[in-house]
Write a structure and sequence with these properties.
The protein is an alpha/beta fold and 129 residues long. It is built from three helices and five strands. A five-stranded mixed sheet has the order 1-4-3-2-5, covered by helices on one side. The radius of gyration is 14 Å and the shape is globular.
């Protein structure tokens, strides 16, 4: 199986695309994640929609907005409320995790490898076979 993060952007207008992707593909949505981090002395979060693997090609997409929205732990925003509404519509729980910021890694690919490892250790993603 191939598991790959697909970054939509930093989160403001990109979040609306993420929400529509999930609604349009509601049968494929597996998990919803909220990743909390501190980036440049700001508490921010990333929204992630994990899809079920495709039947052909065994590809699992993880669509995300990256570290652009203020953390709801600091201040509840309309964007977080929209993500909560999505979770209600899809009858899914939002899994919340604290992670390192992407700036901790010199390359974005290393960051995504780190996130993949965190998600596998927490049994959110299945290990490769």
């Amino acid at each position: 199986m191939i598991q790959r993060f697909i970054e939509l952007g930093e989160g403001y207008s990109d979040l609306y695309e993420l929400l529509e992707l999930a609604r349009y593909n509601k049968e494929r949505v597996d998990q919803l994640l909220l990743l909390h981090t501190n980036k440049n002395d700001r508490n921010v979060c990333s929204f992630v929609v994990i899809m079920k693997p495709t039947s052909v090609g065994d590809f699992q997409a993880l669509y995300m907005t990256l570290e652009g929205i203020p953390s709801p732990k600091e201040k509840r925003t309309k964007r977080f409320e929209l993500f909560e509404q999505l979770a209600d519509q899809l009858n899914k729980n939002i899994i919340e995790l604290e992670v390192k910021p992407s700036t901790y890694y010199k390359e974005k690919e290393l960051y995504y490898q780190y996130l993949t490892g965190v998600l596998r250790l927490n049994h959110i993603l299945q290990p490769l076979k």
